[in-house]
């Protein structure tokens, strides 16, 4: 039960951050945003998606074999805190430096998100017997979907 709760809360948190990222990037600089255009945001998200694809295909399986899913999830959760805390300082940058740092931060945020979620799924699947695995995954995915639907509403109200 604890693993399911953690994966649901992680889904809510990262869904909120994903929705807020685009709003923050297109907001004017005098409000703390980046004054990016929608095409600039799309470019950042495309680069992030490509980096995430490479990470999931090549790096995550290696890291998970070495450290295990628990340690991968813990490291991802701990490193997410200083990364997200650095976003206000990222807004102070400009030009090429902003572009590079923002792409790296966005890719890392999503890599950490995927690491946490995948690690928790692996833990859940290894903790549940084969006969109950489908039910456990169904409950977990339903709860995550519910929180992913609530996330944008909660994030938007902030």
What report would you give on this structure?
The chain has 158 residues and is mainly alpha-helical. It has one domain (2-157). It has six helices and no strands. It has helices spanning 2-26, 38-67, 69-85, 87-90, 95-127, 133-157. Helix 3 (69-85) packs antiparallel against helix 5 (95-127). The longest helix is centred in the last third of the chain and has 33 residues, at 95-127. The protein is globular. The mean pLDDT is 86. Belongs to the major facilitator superfamily. Phosphate:H(+) symporter (TC 2.A.1.9) family.
SSE blueprint and pairings:
Layout: H1 2-26, H2 38-67, H3 69-85, H4 87-90, H5 95-127, H6 133-157
Helix pairs in contact: 1-5, 1-6, 2-3, 2-5, 3-5
Subcellular location: Membrane
GO cellular component, one term: membrane
InterPro entries: MFS_trans_sf
Overall shape: globular
Please trace the helix and strand order, writing H or E for each element.
Answer: HHHHHH
Mean pLDDT: 86
Q: Which parts are unreliable, with pLDDT below 50 for 5 consecutive residues or more?
A: none
State the end-to-end distance.
Answer: 29 Å
Counted beta strands: 0
The assigned structural class equals: mainly alpha
Our count of helices gives 6
Main sheet, how many strands, which sense, barrel? none
Helical residues, percent = over 70%
| C-alpha Rg (nearest Å) | 17 Å
Amount of beta strand: under 5%
Number of domains: 1
Family: Belongs to the major facilitator superfamily. Phosphate:H(+) symporter (TC 2.A.1.9) family.
Transmembrane segments: 7-24, 44-63, 75-101
Keywords: Membrane, Transmembrane, Transmembrane helix, Transport
GO cellular component, one term: membrane
């Amino acid at each position: 039960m604890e693993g399911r709760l953690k994966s649901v809360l992680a889904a809510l948190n990262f869904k909120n951050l994903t929705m807020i990222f685009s709003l923050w990037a297109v907001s004017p600089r005098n409000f703390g945003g980046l004054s990016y255009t929608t095409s600039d945001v799309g470019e950042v998200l495309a680069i992030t998606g490509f980096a995430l694809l490479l990470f999931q295909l090549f790096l995550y399986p290696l890291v998970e074999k070495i450290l295990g899913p628990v340690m991968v999830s813990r490291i991802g959760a701990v490193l997410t805190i200083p990364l997200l805390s650095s976003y206000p300082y990222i807004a102070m940058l400009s030009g090429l430096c902003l572009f590079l740092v923002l792409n790296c931060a966005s890719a890392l945020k999503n890599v950490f998100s995927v690491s946490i979620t995948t690690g928790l799924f692996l833990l859940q699947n290894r903790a549940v017997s084969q006969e109950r695995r489908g039910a456990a995954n169904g409950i977990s995915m339903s709860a995550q979907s519910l929180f992913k639907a609530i996330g944008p509403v909660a994030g938007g109200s902030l």
